[in-house]
Amino acid sequence: MFGFFGLFVPGTKVYNIILIGMFGYNLTYLFLELINSKRIIKKTKSERKFIKNRFMLLQTIAFIYLFFSSLKTFIMIRNGYDYSQIRYDYFQLNGYETSNLVSVYFRTYILQAIVFLGIIISGFELFKKNRNKLIIYVSIINVLMLIFINSGRTIIFQLVLVILFSYLLRPKNNKITKKIKFMTFSMASFFMFLTVFITNLRNYKDESAILATTRTIVTYFLGSLTFLEYNINEFLKTGESYLYGRGFLGGIIDPFINVVNILGFENIRSSGEIINEITGKFSYVGTTTYYNAFSTMFFVFFVDFGYIGVFICTSFFAFLSYFIYLGYNKSEDNYSKGLLIIILYGTIYSSFRWIFLFPWVIILIILLKFCFKKSKKGKLLNE
Length: 383
What we know:
Layout: H1 12-36, E1 48-50, H2 52-78, H3 83-90, H4 101-126, H5 133-150, H6 154-168, H7 178-202, H8 209-238, H9 250-263, H10 271-279, E2 283-284, E3 290-291, H11 296-305, H12 307-331, H13 334-349, H14 359-370, E4 372-374
Antiparallel strand pairs: 1-4, 2-3
């Protein structure tokens, strides 16, 4: 049975897993809402002050690294490399850009976190009355350079979502001027064009750019379900034992495992390595479409505990989401808003991946806290 663009329709197993996950998440969230419904949330003024100097230090570090990486990419293009080769080398340990192990870990763990942090903070600034244009410009330049060196489209997806979340979570008394509306529309249009352009560079060169982009969007959102089924079957074939929560907490646990391995004390496979070994293999998800990497968050949860893991992990995710939302609802400061945006992004992106498998997301949370200094507890807003 085929769907759009000849994509295979996933089997019953996939729909059962999705239903289990939805049940676990919604049941937990409704339970927490029920037991907290009678509690009065005392709203306080902002308890954390944004430290601009710390933020700009991080963005400057990213800018310097990205600038020299962009020069290397430019040289590769002049030497006749196409973007498929550049992208392959970018993600390989023996590639042009990854010959240095320190560079690999910096880019994998820290650089992506800094760039995403820049997107979050610039989203806040964009909808402020007295916005800091330098923060917005530096953050956008870093995004553009990152796109240039790896031709990635995920960062564009992140940018668009964060701007949307920032708009929806802006202070109620902040009116959006025509200038900001025009600026936001222009930015969105530019990055949409950039997405089409990158897609045209990377895929389906015998198709029009619009058709290739449409095919890519449909494949990413629907192909992940077919790929989920393939990956579950592959995991069961390997005979590997379950990870027992190491996938759910991969972003926290894996860096320690990598340090132990580098120091030579033990040779332990990280959860990211185990999962990526399976999801990294290409598989046909349609008659002419092959796919890798994105197998939804449910694959990580299944690898942790099987079917029961899907229920347990989605329940914990609901628990985490609920209390971060409560924290934001209580203070409504930018630090809490930043945490909420990360959770919202993780929820949307769960149709592709479990973001907390990746250490850069945990580092992003640490850097977000680093850029906000806790002040004395504010007075109640209604006093």
